[in-house]
Write a structure and sequence with these properties.
Blueprint (H helix, E strand, L loop, with lengths): L2 H18 L3 H13 L3 H20 L11 E7 L8 H15 L25 E7 L4 E6 L4 H4 L3 E5 L4 H16 L7 E9 L1 H10 L12 H16 L14 E11 L4 E8 L6 E6 L4 E3 L6
Parallel strand pairs: 1-2, 5-6
Antiparallel strand pairs: 1-3, 3-8, 4-7, 5-7, 8-9
Helix pairs in contact: 1-4, 2-3, 6-8
The structure holds iron/sulfur cluster.
Length: about 300
C-alpha cells in the first residue's frame, strides 16, 4: 500500500467512526445528563438520543439522517514530509465514504442548485490546515457538521466598549434565538477578537476540544463556566422540550488579539450529534486513532 493510500483509507475510517460512533467524552456526558435531567420530556428525549447512538454504534449506521457537510482539520507535523496532494486525497476519501458507509450526499451548488452526489464540490470538503512544531506525524480530524446546528451559528461585530458584558449578551441572545432548532443539548464554541472570519473560525475550532476541559487561562475558564450555567438557565432543554440541565453540554472559548476599533464574536453551535474523529499517521506507516477504537 502506498502512503497516500494509507491516508485515504484512514480518512474513510475516520468518516465512518464520526458518523456511527460518538467520541467517548460526548457519549458519557449525554448519559450523565440523561440521569441528571429532571424534566420528564427532556429526560425522555435524552433517553431516545442515548438509545439511538447505542444502536448506531452496534449496527455501524449513521446516528442521524443529516450526516453533515465534510470539514477536516489537518495538523501537519513540521517534520512530516509527505503532504503533497493531501487535499485530493481527502476529497477522494469523502466521496468513497459517501458510498461505503454510506453517507447522505449533502454538497449542494448554492448558485445553480443540484447535489454533487458524493459530498464533494467547490471548496468542499473544507480543509483547515495548521502546523505542529517538532512533530513527525500528520493528524487528521474528520468533522462532518450538521446543517440544523450550523444554521444557528452567528457573528457579532460588537463595539469594543461593549466589553465582556456585551460578549456574554451576544452569546446568550444567539442561544435564545436558536431555541430548540440546533437539536440541543448543544456544545457552544465562542471565538472572540481577530476579525470577522477569524472569530468564527476560532469559535468552530473550539468544538474539537474534549468536553469538560477548561481553557488554561483562568479568566477564560470562568467565562466558559458562567456561560454554560447561563445557557442552561434558559431552560430550553433537550430538543427544546424544556429542561433544567440539558440545553448545553459545554461552552468552549478562545480569543485572538483584536483591532482597537473591533470586537468580533463568533458563536459556533454543535448539536448533540457531535461527530469528530481524529487519527495520527506516522512516517513509518503506523496509525493511531485518538478518539475511537479500531476493532
Ligand atoms: S442538527 Fe445535528 S442532530 Fe439535528 S438533524 Fe442536523 S445533524 Fe442531526
Amino acid at each position: 500500500m502506498t502512503f497516500y493510500q494509507l491516508i485515504e483509507d484512514t480518512t474513510v475510517k475516520l468518516l465512518k467512526f464520526a458518523a456511527t460512533q460518538l467520541p467517548n467524552d460526548v457519549s458519557e456526558a449525554l448519559k450523565r445528563m440523561q440521569e441528571e435531567e429532571t424534566s420528564p420530556p427532556s429526560k425522555a428525549a435524552l433517553s431516545t438520543i442515548v438509545d439511538n447512538f447505542g444502536i448506531a454504534e452496534d449496527t455501524s449506521t449513521p446516528m442521524c439522517q443529516d450526516t453533515g457537510i465534510h470539514i477536516y482539520y489537518v495538523n501537519i507535523g513540521e517534520n512530516f514530509p509527505k503532504v503533497l496532494g493531501i487535499a485530493d486525497i481527502l476529497r477522494k476519501a469523502s466521496a468513497r465514504a459517501t458510498k461505503e458507509v454510506p453517507l447522505r450526499p449533502n454538497a449542494v451548488n448554492p448558485i445553480v442548485g443540484g447535489n454533487s452526489g458524493d459530498n464533494t464540490g467547490n471548496h468542499i470538503p473544507f480543509i483547515n490546515y495548521d502546523f505542529i512544531p517538532g512533530a513527525d506525524y500528520l493528524e487528521i480530524t474528520a468533522f462532518p457538521k450538521g446543517g440544523g446546528s450550523e444554521n444557528m451559528c452567528a457573528l457579532g461585530m460588537l463595539k469594543p466598549g461593549q466589553g465582556i458584558a456585551g460578549i456574554k449578551k451576544f452569546v446568550i441572545d444567539t442561544i435564545l434565538n436558536a431555541g430548540g432548532q440546533p437539536c440541543p443539548p448543544v456544545i457552544v464554541g465562542v471565538g472572540i477578537g481577530g476579525g470577522a472570519d477569524i472569530a468564527l473560525k476560532i469559535g468552530k475550532k473550539q468544538l474539537m476540544r474534549p468536553l469538560g476541559e477548561r481553557h488554561p487561562d483562568p479568566e477564560i475558564a470562568k467565562l466558559e463556566e458562567d456561560l454554560l450555567k447561563a445557557i442552561n438557565m434558559t431552560g430550553f432543554g433537550s430538543m427544546g422540550l424544556g429542561g433544567e440541565v440539558s440545553t448545553a453540554l459545554d461552552v468552549k472559548i478562545d480569543y485572538a488579539h483584536r483591532h482597537p476599533a473591533s470586537l468580533p464574536v463568533g458563536v459556533a453551535i454543535q448539536c448533540w450529534a457531535a461527530r469528530r474523529a481524529t487519527a495520527r499517521i506516522y512516517q513509518d506507516g503506523r496509525v493511531e486513532f485518538l478518539t475511537h477504537k479500531e476493532e
